[in-house]
């Protein structure tokens, strides 16, 4: 009999993570001789631990297809990190117990670096316990910081949103700068890697020149040099737009916006660097300002998704299933760039041993020598990732997004109490 599959979404969701879910489920339905049902975890990996499984076979083909243009996580996600095999032994044992009880032989974990690590550990544990599981990581992260893959599904759409929003807001500031606001500061996601902030640089182009200053996590913040450049931009253009990554640090390595405390993954909880930078400009330069935090808007904006991003998100979900039924284990579908212009790419395969716990930051050649802008090499890398539009269907002026029934699978095991 064919084994069932378990699929879960992890970490911060994106505008296109459901496109990967669509790719997984639609492709699994094409292999009835290999895969029985696809069970989704309610709220990510927590769904497996609590045996809260969703039977996706209860959803019609049309409903699953609609996931491709629906943002956020259709099954619920979570920020819950499983630690080492010995540290979290009870939890890993519980995973195997649930997988056995529901005849699960395939594990598809859709997330970022921490998810890749969990997926790798599940593959190791299945070997140790002699219970075969094809564990495949489905890449997703707006931060674009997974190694080996050219880019991460979810990033292209965030990059498009930030590039467009930066351009539009800059037009607004330019129109008001004579008598009002001269500075606009937009804070974007990116704890350790400045890929999203870099996308703000695409707002300016030779035919639409905009004075933009970018603050990257990879470049220690130099207050004096930053303020001098902002003043220079204001003198030349009458206004300036600042794109700042949430993870900008000072020379001592401390986050400018560190609020104290940790999130569920053990990462420092960040407060808000946008108002910090805006206030600094007002205090030192005297310019009137406005600031905004893109926050959830940047990762939820399916109405402005990049077509290339949607296609890649679906492709890695599809490939994950194809890899699994072909017998592969502990791997991740990757995006392999073949050319910039015309933009061509294909799906490759990366071993999880080389993906887990590795963070890809902006290369130095992508940041201008002054540390406040993007180079032409970076522009060539970013530009194809925001190409194309993939609008969802609309009705009465609003996008039509699907909500699943998410029918629960009957439980078979005793209640598990999470720590």
Reconstruct the topology from this structure.
Elements: E1 3-9, H1 17-28, E2 35-41, H2 45-49, E3 53-55, H3 61-66, H4 89-101, E4 104-111, H5 113-128, E5 134-139, H6 155-176, E6 183-188, H7 195-199, E7 212-215, H8 223-237, E8 240-245, E9 258-262, E10 268-270, H9 273-285, E11 289-293, H10 295-300, H11 307-325, E12 331-339, E13 344-351, H12 376-382, E14 394-395, E15 398-399
Parallel strand pairs: 1-2, 1-4, 4-5, 6-8, 6-11, 7-8
Antiparallel strand pairs: 2-3, 9-10, 12-13, 14-15
Helix pairs in contact: 1-11
Please give a handful of descriptors for the protein shown.
five-stranded mixed sheet, 2 domains, four-stranded parallel sheet, Rossmann fold, alpha/beta, single chain, elongated, 15 strands
Mean pLDDT: 94
Estimated structural class? alpha/beta
| CATH fold group of the largest domain | Rossmann fold
The largest β sheet comes out as:
5 strands, mixed
Percent of residues in helical segments?
A: 25-40%
Radius of gyration: 22 Å
Low-confidence stretches: 259-265
Q: How many alpha or pi helices? A: 12
Task: Return the CATH class of the largest domain.
Answer: Alpha Beta
Binned strand content: 15-25%
Q: What characteristic shape results from the CA principal axes?
A: elongated
Q: End-to-end span in angstroms?
A: 35 Å
CATH architecture of the largest domain: 3-Layer(aba) Sandwich
Sketch the topology as an H/E string, one letter per element: EHEHEHHEHEHEHEHEEEHEHHEEHEE
Number of domains: 2
Largest sheet, spatial ordering of strands: 3-2-1-4-5
Strand segment count: 15
């Amino acid at each position: 009999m064919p084994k069932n599959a378990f699929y879960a979404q992890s970490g911060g969701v994106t505008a296109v993570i459901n496109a990967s879910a669509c790719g997984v489920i639609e492709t699994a339905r094409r292999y009835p001789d290999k895969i029985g049902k696809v069970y989704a975890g309610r709220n990510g990996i927590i769904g497996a631990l609590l045996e809260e499984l969703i039977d996706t076979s209860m959803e019609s083909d049309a409903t699953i297809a609609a996931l491709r243009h629906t943002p956020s996580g259709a099954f619920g996600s979570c920020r819950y990190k499983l630690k080492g095999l010995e540290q979290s032994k009870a939890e890993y044992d519980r995973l195997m117990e649930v997988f056995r009880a529901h005849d699960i032989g395939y594990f598809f974990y859709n997330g970022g670096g921490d998810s890749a690590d969990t997926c790798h550990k599940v593959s190791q544990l299945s070997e140790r316990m002699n219970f075969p599981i094809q564990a495949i990581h489905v890449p997703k992260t707006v931060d674009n910081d997974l190694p080996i893959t050219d880019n991460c599904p979810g990033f292209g759409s965030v990059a498009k949103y930030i590039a467009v929003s930066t351009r539009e807001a800059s037009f607004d500031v330019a129109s008001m700068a004579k008598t009002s606001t001269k500075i606009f500061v937009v804070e974007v996601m990116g704890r350790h890697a400045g890929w999203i902030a870099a996308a703000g640089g695409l707002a300016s182009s030779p035919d639409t020149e905009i004075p933009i200053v970018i603050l990257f996590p990879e470049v220690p913040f130099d207050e004096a040099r930053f303020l001098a450049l902002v003043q220079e931009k204001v003198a030349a253009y009458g206004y300036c737009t600042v794109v700042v990554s949430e993870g900008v640090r000072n020379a001592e390595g401390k986050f400018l916006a560190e609020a104290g405390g940790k999130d569920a993954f053990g990462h420092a909880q960040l407060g808000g660097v946008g108002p910090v930078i805006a206030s600094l400009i007002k205090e030192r330069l005297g310019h009137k300002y406005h600031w905004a935090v893109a926050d959830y808007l940047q990762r939820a904006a399916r109405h402005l998704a990049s077509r290339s991003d949607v296609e890649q998100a679906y492709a890695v979900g599809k490939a994950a299933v194809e890899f699994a039924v072909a017998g592969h284990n502990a791997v991740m579908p990757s995006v392999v760039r073949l050319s910039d212009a015309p933009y061509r790419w294909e799906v490759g395969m990366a071993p999880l041993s080389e993906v887990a716990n590795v963070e890809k930051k902006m290369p130095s050649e992508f940041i201008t020598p002054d540390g406040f802008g993007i180079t032409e090499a970076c522009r060539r890398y970013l530009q194809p990732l925001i190409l194309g539009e993939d609008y969802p269907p609309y009705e009465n002026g609003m996008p039509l997004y699907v909500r699943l029934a998410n029918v629960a699978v009957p439980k078979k095991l005793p209640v598990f109490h999470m720590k």
